[in-house]
Amino acid sequence: MLLESSARAGSPTERYAGTDVVVAGQPFVPRAGELRAALDRLASVERSVPELSFPTTAVDASGEPVEAPWDGPFLGHSWESAALGPFLLRQGRAPAGDSEVVLDAELAGRLGVGAGDTVRLGGPDGLRPYQVSGVADPPRRPARQYAVFHTAREAERLAGSEQPVRAFGVLAAKGTANPETLRRQVEKAVRDLYGDNAGSLVVASGAGRADAEFWGVPSPASVLSSLVGTFGVLSLFVAGFVVAGTLTLAVAGRLTEIGLLRAVAATKGQIRRMIAVEVLLVTVAAALLGAPGGIGVAMLLHRVLVDGEVLPPSFVLSVGPVAPWATVVLAAVVAQFAAFAAARRSSRVRPVEVLRESAAPAPKPGRLRVLLGVGVFAGAGGCLGAVATGRLDGGGGTTESMVLVLLVGTALLAPLICRVAGALFLAPVAWFLPREGTLAVRNLLRNEARLAATVTPLVLALSLTGTLLCVPLITSQGAQRAERERLLADHVVSSAGPGIAPGYAERAARLPGVAAASGQLSVDGELSRADADQDDDASVIGGNLVAMRADAVPELLDLGVHTGSLARLGEASVALGDSAARDLSVTVGDRVRVDWDDGGRDTYRVAAVYSRDRDFADALLPRASAARHAPALLDDTVLVRTAPGADRDAVERQLDDLAAVFPGASVDGAASGDAGSHSESGAAANLFVLLLLTMINVFTAIAVVNTLSMVTAGRRGEFALLRLAGAQSAQVLRMLAWEAVLTCAVALLLATLVCAAVLVPLSIAVTGSAVPALAGGPLAALAAGAPLVAVATTTLVGRLAMRSAAATPGGLARAVS
Fold first, then answer.
1. Closest CA to 790 of 470, 455, 503, 513
2. pTM above 0.70, yes or no
3. Is the dihedral of CA 101, 107, 110, 115 positive or negative?
């Protein structure tokens, strides 16, 4: 339901609602004057309105920066672009001077100001006071952004870009009734003007205007859909594991019945169809309860996500027939696959083997199953070895996916693995246990199939929980380690907003006691060899590009240069990371080309190749040339190094004072890096991980309780024999408790091996240490909670089973007679 809701949730046009067609740059419109002239020449165009936009920040009365709602944009504009909304004045008048602004009504309410009041807005040189000349709103009040309107001259100054126009809004002339026809005409005009570079522009009408308006800004619905997709895949994976184990155990308990059916001429296909139909009927019965329950849970999750500010209150939960029916079909498919796996072996039982099959332990796994399991482990081992040696990136879901692969291998070889684990672990432990414990060990060793049925869901829960909790800790630890190795700077100034205005780095460099300072500006473009064919995609990489002041780089960064020198960086040179240099087959002295997202192109000579490019940049560019192609001149971070002999604490105090006039800037220690920046999507991911782990562990707890209940209830005859041999009820219950504890111990051991197989290679790759960071508290609670659930279940069901007539000594004697 959440996935369907995210797919149906649209992003309505807000700032461009008053236009017929939008021509949007990605990130800005090059040659804007020429495009405006071309658009105005079209007979079907009344006029084209440029939108000059740039990120800005306001501070409230307490001095805290104001963030746009739901991680949306907070932009400053020229008042000329207000016509795109159209933004209509609700109070006051348009800005008449450079010290006046118009706010949208939502922002004015957030700040508690109106016409005639004063607000402080961030600019290239820090905070500056502006008088609110008016408050305006379009017909559709913006819900995902804030807007501030300046005079045209002030907007150009604040944008600080050579190409500040983000888009053009095209207003149709009277008599042009079809916006689609106008869009095609505008597209032709764009192609005629830009030729092959027209791909950097988007021409949109109708609902497409919202995509152009929020280009590069993830909507709450898109964040939700990606997280819910992962949630759903893992849910099906866990359900498949649990259902398969439960059905296998249930069918194994019916071997006598199946053997008798075979004795009266039932075929293997009939047996399999019987089990499949039974499972289908169970699925239908479950759907009658599960589908309405799922609707209720979806409503609860929707409320949790809204209260957690992951979703806006306006996000509508779609309650319709599509999601329930799709869920029932998926559940039926998963259950049928599980039923096929469970029925395959049972349908092949021969009537003469009924007594042996029902009394003896399950046979060894088939050769094909063993080979498949070994192949799965071998494939996972190859991938994890590549992660450990750096030949494969362990991020991007690779590590988490390897856990699922290892769990598949564990399920395939579960009886064999439990047999080996029992011989290596349980048998030696029996020497140190009391009589009930020794009997429990013998019971587990004699029936590894029963042990595997209980261990598998526990391993699943423990492994997934451990991985999902520990992987972020390891990657964060690796990023901090790489940052410490890379930084020569004593102070890192990070941003809690869209970025830090360039004036901060310029003023910091002039502070007493500062040896060097530079901002780190992220720019978008593609790297390629300068002599490569433009159409040769193999020689082009999507580069993570960072621009800095060339003269400050050697003072601020130790990039592990092994070829060339950072001192050679200049306006026409670039430093490349190892991976980029290897992919492009270039070295020092060669020339590389950067194709910018705005359609521009620059060529640089390689001055150095460095090894510390993990979590940093594929290429380090001179700021002066890269800034011409940046959509906004805002630094991600600012690096500052104290001069020899200067007081570091005094420099830090000066940086703190300077940060007070640059909204969102905060001074951290050099080891902090940029780890302090978080976003709405990060909060959503953390909340979803918590929900996912809760689902996995609750579902696994239900599976373990089901499995233990089925196994324990089916042992009434065994309990009666123990009672006939003189065992007391308390002794039998203690035996069951020991079985539960030892089963959990085996599961914990196997889960530890699975997690170590995944986490250790990742830790070696990103931190250089084979000892991974662990979420000790949650894992300890889970490891302690599993035996409690298992012991409580077995003792309760065992007590009930021994009270039944068939489990008493007298009942057994009557049955035998």
1. 455
2. yes
3. positive
